[in-house]
Design brief:
This protein is mainly α. 47% of the residues lie in helices and 6% in strands.
Length: 136
């Protein structure tokens, strides 16, 4: 293999690696932006339920850093996505707005653990993963 051919292959490999990582990084950036736009007013920048609008809310916004702890140490991904999307059965008193329409768009197959990947909005999955990363 000559040096020019090797350099070209290395360049292609690097370009492929960067392209493979780019969507994931932009999903994280989008998730952070969505959290800041949709969640911070109630849940606060740190997710602890202390946002500027939380003062007069009943019930108080959930401390997002304790979701797993309040569920036996397991983060309930499907339940969290349901709350974000606006599906809150049995919780009619919840002031949580429905964000489903705002997060609609391209989908990915998401397996909630039942072995059946379901088309789920990318932004919804990314926002749920953002909240999951906040767990203490």
């Amino acid at each position: 293999m000559n040096a020019t051919y090797g350099a070209a292959l290395t360049g292609l490999a690097m370009a492929g690696l960067i392209a493979a990582c780019a969507p994931q990084m932009s999903d994280r950036v989008q998730a952070r932006n969505d959290f800041n736009a949709l969640c911070v007013d109630c849940h606060g920048a740190d997710g602890r339920g202390n946002g500027p609008a939380a003062g007069g809310m009943t019930p108080a916004p959930v401390d997002l850093t304790r979701v797993a702890a309040s569920n036996g140490g397991t983060f309930p991904r499907l339940q969290v996505m349901g709350h974000i999307y606006g599906f809150t059965p049995g919780r009619s008193e919840s002031p949580m707005p429905e964000f489903g329409d705002l997060l609609d768009g391209p989908t990915i197959p998401y397996d909630a653990g039942d072995g059946n990947p379901t088309p789920t909005p990318v932004r919804l999955v990314a926002l749920m993963e953002y909240v999951e990363a906040m767990q203490q």
